[in-house]
Amino acid sequence: MGCGAARMIPDSSLAQLGGHTAGILGLATFLVDGEVRVASASHDKTVRIWRTTGECLIHVLEGHGDFLTAICAYESGGAARVASGSADRTVRIWDPKEGKCLHILRGHEYFIKVMTAFKDASTGDALIASSALDGTIRTWRGGDGSPVAVIKVHAQPPGHELSSIRRQSLVAPPRKRGSMVGGAQGGARKSQYKSKVAAKPPPGGEKPAFAIAAFDGATRLVTGHADGTMKTWANASGDAAAADWQGHEAPVFALCVFAGAAGERCASGSGDFSIKVWDLAARAALVTIPGAHDEKVCCLACFAPPDGSPAKLVSGSGDMQLALWDAEATPELEPPEKGKPDDDEEAGPRSKAINRLEGHTTVVSSLGAYLSNGKQRVASAAWDGKVRLWDPFDDGPGVC
């Protein structure tokens, strides 16, 4: 595959897209004139737009004054758009076809952590939601960038220690699984985040959103927080009370939403190494995947396979792996590895994935799913500064 900056690599990914000079924190997949594109947002202050075949690099988008933290893609007025969030406290809306910045959105008082795009329930127009460490979620119109609402999650003073915790958690080397608290299959694991966040709560009980997701055409936003709680907001304006429940025993770093066989579902990934699939109306975990990874679950992507089989999840982790899961079934546990020490502690259970993919050399920070010639593909980004393309069902080398 001749991808300009891309090359074939001796691992299980199909291709590697290189060019960023620092780690990548966000990735989005989308279509331009029917062709798949990937957008990557990096600590080097740039957004790169890629094809998945041919000469891959299309645009390098510059303009942010500090490192990028988040990115999302959507359609507005029949045209593809990309929105990027940065430590410079702004959101920028880009035309990824022309490589131009269309709008700069200001209002956040501290750096933006996560973003999502969705369709307004009443008008069908594209909306953007950005969550920042100022303790707010701001919603914007995706067409012209005009503000819609400010949701005050919790007040978070600029400079709070959670910003450094978050940054350290993304670049820290992988840690092995910790010991079980309970010892049963559904028991919780000890996590490094327990001591950093949960044991030292921010003053005033602030719970900034570390993850955010939304259903197209729905009225709910879903957020995940540093103390392991999750929230559903009754609408994008935040003027209705949110449901609040304890989802995990450590920070919720990842959320994705999908249509399950019996309705809308939300998957969450956490620093407690687990993934859960939720019935949001009942606030009940339908599927629990303990020990999904040997480190924190940093990102998730959901897709419906083209063969009509049940929905699937792909997870990325601090253990540098991707893992593929059935989104509607609790997996079996892997048998324990005999004679293998685990930081002098008994390792907790590890769930058996449909497939595990290796290739990144550091934390996998973001994922996106797409179809290529009718075949399911996944794009991943990591702190190694690379985007990788995968066949999630095949752990051997191949071509796109």
UniProtKB/TrEMBL annotation:
SMART domains: WD40. Transmembrane segments: none annotated. The keyword Repeat applies. Pfam families: WD40. Residues 171-203, 329-355 are annotated as: Disordered. Keywords: Repeat, WD repeat. WD repeats lie at residues 61-104, 245-288, 357-391. The keyword Lipid metabolism does not apply. PANTHER family: F-BOX AND WD REPEAT DOMAIN CONTAINING 7, WD40 REPEAT PROTEIN. This is Anaphase-promoting complex subunit 4 WD40 domain-containing protein. It comes from Aureococcus anophagefferens.
